[in-house]
Fold each of these.
Amino acid sequence: MSLRPSALPKLAECACYEADPNPGPAAERGSALDALFRSRMAGHPDQAEMFFEPTEADLDAVDWAATTVRALAGGTEVITREQDCRIDIPGFDKPGTADALIPDKLAHADLKTGQKRNYREQMAAYALGLMEQHFASEWTAHLIFCDRKEVVTLRFSFEEAKRLVGAVVARYRDPQKQPTPCDYCGWCAKRETCPARMALAAQATEVAAPSFDFEAVLSDNVKLGKFLSACAVLDDFRERAEAVARERLQAGHEIPGWKLVTRRGPEFVDHVSVGQHIQALGFGPVLAAYGNLGAKKFRDLWAARMPSEKPFPEELVHHGKATISLRQSKQTNQ
Ligand code: SF4
């Protein structure tokens, strides 16, 4: 596998990570929104729509990102042409590509879709290449989490960027490196063959050996932890196995014990049709039937429809009951 700066966040978790050559829908959406962002910044509003049909939320996220990056540049030049944003980074086989360069501010911006993750090592690599290119000793990276409408700013000295990147690259090039199951396993090309994952999955029954005794698992905290870690890996395998079984059944093959079931899609009335009858039905009963509106949607509506001098009424926001869920803190095969 050739070393790309975009793989650094994953390699920082597992030095054996290998990018899946078939990107999933989330990665495809990320690339499409990057392209749309470049088009918007260049004043070509529709270019990326040729291969991707963005939703209203996508367009809103990209427009927010473009406004934010311009604001961060504070009127100075913003470079977004892909070929001008390539960054050669020492020690890497392939260059990186930032989404926007703000040279006068010694900064770059990178659009990220989906949830907030750690991109420190990737940003450090970009910063390292850009510091060399601009003869700078410090660099700023703005992570633009466009779905969450949040900016995370990271600042690097040359030494810090070099140390951060060097540590991950050294682990990646270590011939003795071992796979470390992590949050990125689901995106890894080796996810179905990785020995560390196989060992974890095998624990599901091993922890209760010699025979499967669930009470014994529940009564022992160490066994309980191992069992849950094994189930997390088995869950991934189950999803993949279900997809394969669905395909084969659709093609007319037999999978003993399994069949396809078709459920009727849900019935609904679209909001435009409801709007046509809202006077007769009454606003109150219709709104009550729709139920509560998420605070974020209400904030967005307020920002879009109210005059800017009218402050958002924070007192209207209710806070639901906090929920407690179980989350894996660190995958383990000990
Ligand atoms: S599947 Fe294996 S190699 Fe890939 S990230 Fe997970 S532990 Fe690492």
Note: The pocket of iron/sulfur cluster is lined by residues 14, 16-17, 179-182, 184-185, 188, 190-191, 194, 196-197 (CB under 6 Å).
Amino acid sequence: MTMTTNLSDIAEVLKSRDNFEILTHKYPDGDTLGSAYALCRILRSMGKNANVIVNGTLSRKMAFLKDGLNDLDFDVQTVVSVDVAAPAQLGDLREKYENIVDVSIDHHDMNTPFAALTYEDPSAASNCENIFKLAKVMDANIDKLTADCIYTGLCTDTGCMKYSSVTADTLRTAAELVDLGCDNARINREMCDTKSVARIKMEQQILNSLTLHCDNKIAVVHTTMQMEKDCGADDGDLDGLANISRQIEGVYIGITVKEKSEKNFRISLRTNHGVNAAEICASLGGGGHIAAAGCTLYGTLEEVKNKIVEVCEKYLNTEYVA
Ligand SMILES: [Mn+2]
């Protein structure tokens, strides 16, 4: 039986167990990795065995989250997932883990509970805020490196505290992390400002692909596998590219169409002015948050672009209330 519970129940379960495997979502970002490595550090500080399963590549940018944590050898007793909204988000890990997740800690608003015990707080801008609260409930020691991990999730899921999802609670958590010695300025710079050469080349290509629709209210850009190859870009270089199309003045919906494989495209929506990206993407089998959501579409690049523009244009003309 699945159920949603509160943090003290989660804390009790974690305290009573040992030998943890902590799962992140596919295409792991700063929030799922920050959550996982923070929880790993917290559990180890309590004398328990814990490892993080990265679920993809640990990018150069995120590698510091693992500093000082060598992989331990033990028989797994407890599986915890962090920032994983649905079994599909487990990607390649789904088959092995879908039915054996003991505890899920998440902050998405369309979470279909799949773990034995689930804690979800959709009001949290990042799942790392949940981990911070959990650490407090568990009365755990939050050292500098743990604070860095938690701050990384806050920072990356909020675009350096810029998104509308940021609450007073997010900022209070950030303040407490600064008190705990986290390297906020460095993390902000590395997560939000620093770009690799491959990244800048990708941005150059992406801007070349820009088209505007619906009185410039909709901006569309795309990336292809060939572009990634030409620029020498890896997953880490592609992180956050979806935000570019929303930066244009007057744009309500910024669309990024990313070629995953032949005729298979990942669509990312970033919206302004209260346009509900989650609702638009849900109508296409995807989901996410109000201002940031995604879905997958199949077809040629042109077909996929036409489809998503059509759906967004229809939304703006019929459902959207300014
Ligand atoms: Mn998240």
Note: The chain has a mean pLDDT of 95.
Amino acid sequence: MIIYKKTGKCIWCGKTEPEVSFKTAPHILPRKLGGCEIGLDVCDDCNHFFGTAEKNKPNIDLVFKEIFGSFRFFSDNLNEHSYEKYSSVYFNYLHSKQCIKIKSLFCSSIITRQFKRALYNVFFQKYHFVTGNANNPMFDMVRDFARYNIGSPLVFYSFNNLKLTPGQEEMNNPHLPITNEIIDDMMKYGVFAFFFMGEIFYLEIFPDVFQIKGMDFLQKQAQRFLVSVKGNERIFEFTDVMQLDFFMMRFRD
Ligand SMILES: [Zn+2]
């Protein structure tokens, strides 16, 4: 039997065997999105937690899958009927207005918060996969937020006029890149650059460092990545799912 552990201590709850078990493969990205990387040191309880809806709160993995799945759906070359195939648990597509709306059963601020927690979840599992260092207490804020819904770390969204065009292969089997440069920047500026499926988010990881150096870093990132075509490019604080550019409007005339 495969046991999915490296340090043997759950990166989320900090528990070890026999109190918890590590028998279920923890997918770093939701399987339904095509993610095939398997993480380590996520106990079965915590693994289950991220894939389950809490009371009044949408499933964190599913929110992530639905949002990036929508990006993927609407960025494909569509014919005039393909929108009819769009289906989502949390969103409706209004063809006449060409916009996405959250279904009335769900609340935008809660979906937004669950999505932010999902970004931290994916980041943290992948970070541990690469470094084996996620048990470090310096990540308590990440644990508190993603796993226990405590706190409100800052997330930024890059609204660019250049699409970092992921290939079809990357769209079908996506993964989150974590390079030494990205880790160095995170340690130095307190913020993690989340490049995924052609979108860029920035996650505050170390608030003390971010407060001092974070905005400078974002400014430098803006100079490096943002392409000025229409003058609307910017990096801004992400506070609402509806700020996301699902339809790639920025690439149209
Ligand atoms: Zn756990």
Note: Residues 31-251 form one domain.
